[in-house]
Amino acid sequence: MSKNPMFAIRTAEGGEDLGEVRSSNPTLLRAFGAAYMRDPKAKGEVALFGPNSQLVATYDIWQDRWEDAEAKAG
After folding, report:
1. CA-based torsion, 29, 34, 39, 44: positive or negative
2. Could you report the per-residue pLDDT of 11-34, keeping only the tens digit for each?
3. Residue 3 gets which letter from DSSP?
4. CA atoms of 1 and 3, how far apart (whole Å)
């Protein structure tokens, strides 16, 4: 098991958890999440969470890009 901080992409639809993918590389997770959301068969929404389970970003399907949580809050 890696001792590096782990980030997670979580998918959900209508409040139901669809799954989670973890990596110490948030850039890789962002690429994975974007590719998932571009698939016409994809369901739900994806969000990137940091090592302490804090929300880092959500994927905006209409703009086809990640929206950082700090940018939305500020």
Report:
1. positive
2. 999 889 999 999 999 999 999 999
3. -
4. 7
Whether the Cβ atoms of residue 31 and residue 12 lie closer than 8 Å to each other: no
Residue 61: strand, helix, or coil: coil
State the DSSP string of 13-52.
Answer: ETTEEEEEEEES-HHHHHHHHHHHHHSTT--SEEEEE-TT
CA atoms within 13 A on the CB side of 57: 16
Cα–Cα distance, 20 to 7 (Å, whole number): 10
Q: What is the pTM of this model?
A: 0.86
For residue 55, what are the β-bridge partners? 49
Dihedral pair phi/psi, residue 3, rounded to 5°: -95, 0
